[in-house]
Specification:
Length: 329
């Protein structure tokens, strides 16, 4: 059985932007030489630097076969240093996307206790063929970062980019996903990105699933979770105004005799930042029905949830095929 939990952050209008700790993670692998992708990435990075203010911090990470910190974390009072590093980039070697992502996250970990928004912006075509390449595991890396208050935005470059992988990183990393087809799109993209970063509305967001007897969780796609005393806990970290999250859960349930059965008691808790962090909690009880009536089964099927599972599975198959191709298998 599949359970899809969809959350959306309440829209908020704030008078000024919250300062940002930003890690720019730029793909400089060989595939970035195609169709001007490297130049798009550099132009996007330049525009991001231009939007940063004196209270923001920036680090720049580039990766190919290995990841390298080109600009250690610092306040953006000297933007020329960052721009010089960006201008020096050129494509080479393989794509260790996981190395770049984890390096960017590590640069921000020591800063998460401050009252800043912590964001990794990944600029890549998503064609990972070194390090960790499995989309589900990359999603878990982004999810763990999100739980710790570091969010991942993914910007896809080039017509051949891996859309499923990049979307998955953004979804599990509680950031945004964009496809950069032309430099003309950049102004609108960054207006949205920085506008959202100004509007954190919830902190320490947690979903708890108290399972009915006989029900077990097989997988929470792309998210880390823990189980204790029959209840699963999924930590989602911060939430931003207008942000949406989909959490897909696969469950095994007992069949038994026909009729309605308890499935799970799902609770959501968070600190409401629009009310000075006041704690909020809500609970909803869900059930399922056992039946041999095929028409009833078909009528009760949510096609959007099935489509989401197909998309998750397809991303994993596609990525494994791409890695096998790159390896000559």
């Amino acid at each position: 059985m599949l359970l899809n939990i969809k959350l959306e952050g309440k829209e908020a209008v704030l008078s000024e932007r919250t300062p940002v700790n930003l890690a720019l993670v730029i793909d400089r692998s060989g595939s970035m030489s195609d169709r001007g992708k490297m130049e798009y990435a550099k132009e996007a990075a330049r525009r991001i630097v231009g939007l940063l203010g004196k209270d923001d911090r920036l680090t720049v990470v580039a990766y190919s076969t290995d990841a390298e910190v080109l600009l250690p974390t610092r306040k953006t009072t000297d933007k020329e240093a960052a721009l010089s590093v960006i201008d020096s980039l050129y494509p080479t070697d393989s794509t260790n996307l996981s190395g770049g992502l984890t390096t960017g996250i590590e640069q921000l970990k020591s800063l998460t206790k401050e009252k800043h928004v912590n964001r990794v912006i990944l600029l890549s075509d998503g064609l990972a063929n070194e390090g960790i390449t499995d989309p589900a595991e990359l999603g878990r890396i982004a999810s763990r970062a999100s739980e710790g208050g570091i969010h991942v935005t993914a910007m896809g470059l080039g017509a051949d980019y891996d859309e499923n992988l990049m979307m998955g990183l953004a979804e599990h990393g509680a950031g945004n996903y964009y496809f950069i087809e032309s430099p003309n799109q950049l102004a609108g993209i960054f207006e949205k990105e920085f506008g959202q970063m100004a509007a954190a509305v919830a902190r320490d967001t947690v979903i708890k699933l108290a399972l009915a007897p006989g029900v077990r969780i097989d997988e929470v796609y792309g998210y880390e979770y823990s189980v204790k005393d029959g209840a699963a806990e999924i930590k989602l970290g911060d939430f931003f105004g207008g942000q949406e999250r989909d959490i897909l859960v696969r469950l095994t349930v007992p069949a038994g005799t026909d009729g309605k059965k308890d499935l799970v008691s799902a609770s959501l808790s968070y600190g409401d930042l629009l009310k000075q962090g006041a704690p909020v909690s809500t609970t909803r009880t869900l059930a399922y029905e056992v039946t041999s009536d095929e028409a009833k089964v078909t009528a009760g099927e949510d096609r959007s949830v099935c489509s989401r599972l197909v998309s998750v599975d397809a991303a994993s198959v596609y990525q494994k095929a791409a890695v096998a191709y790159e390896s000559g298998d």
